[in-house]
Amino acid sequence: MDRRTVITGMGVRAPGGAGTKSFFELLSSGRTSTRRISFFDPSPFRSQVAAECDFDPEASGLTRREIRRMDRATQLAVVAGREAVADSGLEAAGLDPGRVAVSVGTAVGATTSLEREYLVLSDTGHDWFVDPGYASPHLFDYFVPSAIAAEVAWIAGAEGPAAIVSSGCTSGLDSVGYGHQLIKEGSADVVLAGATDAPISPIAVACFDAIKATTPRNDDAEHASRPFDRTRNGFVLAEGAAMLVLEEYEHARRRGARIIAEINGYATRCNAYHMTGLKPDGREMAEAINAALAEASMDGDAVDYVNAHGSGTKQNDRHETAAFKRALGEHAYRTPVSSIKSMIGHSLGAIGSIELVACALAIENDMVPPTANLTEADPECDLDYVPIEARDQRVDTVLSVGSGFGGFQSAMLLSRAGNGS
To answer: Within a domain: residue 118?
Structure first.
C-alpha cells in the first residue's frame, strides 16, 4: 500500500510573535521583525542586526528546572512541539509509542549555552586552562545535540526512531523530509518533525562577519533583509523553531484529524563543489526540485507558489532564480515566488521548518506571503517575487526550497489535502 504523509498539527516560535496565529498575522501584513541586536552589545561587530524572538520560557509553560536544563534552542523546540501536538489533537493514550518518531533539525545546536559556559569556565577568556569546577551539570546536554531530540521525544511520548538532522541551513527541510520517509517506509505512523536554532550569540555573529555573509546595513535594521532586491548585501541572522505533526494518511483519517496539507515529494542534493560558493546556473537545486516533483508524480506546472530560500545574498538569489527557471521552465515566470526571510530573518537550521509552516498557512488561507523590502528590481532576478504586500490567490501546491553551506540543496512539495497524487 502506498503510504501518504499528511500534516495534522503545527507549532512555531518565530521573531515577531508567538504561535501560528501571530505568525500568520505577521506574514499576511508583510511586517518585519528585524532589529538591532539586544541580547548583547553588538557594536564591535560588522553586522549588528538580527531577528530575535520575544520569548519568555516561563510564560510559555516551561518550569524553572526545564529552563535551567535546556539551551534556548531546546526550549524553543519543546514549546513549539507542545503547540503542534495540541494543535493535532493527538492523545498519547491512543497511540502505540513505538510507532511515534521524532526528527529534529539544527545547524548549530546549543551554541548560546556553550559560549556562555566557556566564558564562565575560562573567566571570560582570561584563563587558557579552564576550571571544570565552575561547569554547569547540564554541560553534556549542551554539547550533544541529540539532547534536543530526547527532550522533544519526551513531550510526545515517542519511543520510535529519534534523530537529529544537521545539514546546515537545509536542516529544517531535511528533518521533515526524514520524517516523511519514516512514514512512507512504514517505520512510524506519527512523527513530530521540525527544527530549531538560537544562534544570536557573539561567536556566531563573529563567524558570519568573517566571511561577510550577513548584512552591514545597521542604520536601517527594519529594512535590512532584502532578498532579490538590487541593493541586497547579506542575510539577517535570526532564531526560532517550528514543529509539525506528520501522520500517515489513513492513521489521521481514522481518528478524524484535521488534515492541514500533504507532503507529496522531497529530495536533497549536494553540489560537491564548495563550502559556500554556488554556481550561477542553479543546476543542483533544480535537480532537487525535479526529484521532488518526480516523487510527487507532478509536473512543474502544478506549482502555485514557490517559497524561496531567498537569503538576501547576491549569489544565492541569483542561483535560485536560475534553478526555478531550469526546473519549472516557462511556468517559473507565471509563478509567484517570495522569501519570508525578508520579515523574520534567517534562523539557520530552523528556517526550513518555519517556512514549511508558512507554506501550510498559504494553502490553508489562499494567501501568498510577500517579499518585504523589495523595492528595487534586480535584472538578474526577474521572476514574480511578490514585493511588499501579501497576495490573495488560490494555492493548492507549494514548492519550498533550501540552500545550505556545504552545497546542500533541498526541495519539498506540499499540497492541499486531496489535491496531491
So the answer is: no
**Residue 1: what pLDDT?**
60
CA atoms within 13 A on the CB side of 136: 18
Q: Are 101 and 184 in contact (CB under 8 A)?
A: no
pLDDT score recorded for residue 421: 46
Given its phi and psi angles, is residue 109 left (phi above 0), alpha (psi -120 to 50 degrees) or beta? Answer: left
Specify the pairing of strand 305-307 against strand 397-404: parallel
Q: Which of 53, 169, 359, 381 is catalytic?
A: 169
User: Is 421 part of a structural domain of the chain?
Assistant: no
Domain harbouring 346, CATH code: 3.40.47.10
Could you tell me which of 338, 378, 342 has the C-alpha nearest to residue 361? 338
Q: Are 320 and 308 in contact (CB under 8 A)?
A: yes
Cα torsion 346, 349, 352, 357 to 10°: value is -90
Annotated catalytic residue within 251, 309, 359, 381? 309
Residue 116 lies in a domain: no
Query: Which pLDDT value is given to residue 417?
Result: 86
Q: Which amino acid is at 158?
A: A
* DSSP states along 183-227: HHHTS-SEEEEEEEE---SHHHHHHHHHTT-B---GGGGGG---T
Annotation says 309 is catalytic:
yes
Q: Domain of 157?
A: 5-110+145-415
Q: Which residues of the chain have pLDDT under 50?
A: 420-421
Q: Which of 180, 319, 346, 359 is catalytic?
A: 346
pTM score, two decimals?
0.97
**What pLDDT does residue 137 have?**
93
Residue 370 carries which DSSP code? P
What one-letter code names the amino acid at 147? A
Residue tagged 507542545 (cell numbers): 82
| CB-CB contact of 76 with 104 (8 Å) | no
Q: How many domains does the chain have?
A: 1
**Segment (H or E) for 64:** helix 64-69
| CA separation for the pair 395, 389 (Å, rounded) | 16
Task: Answer whether residue 168 is part of any domain.
Answer: yes
Read off φ and ψ for residue 310, nearest 5 degrees: 45, 60
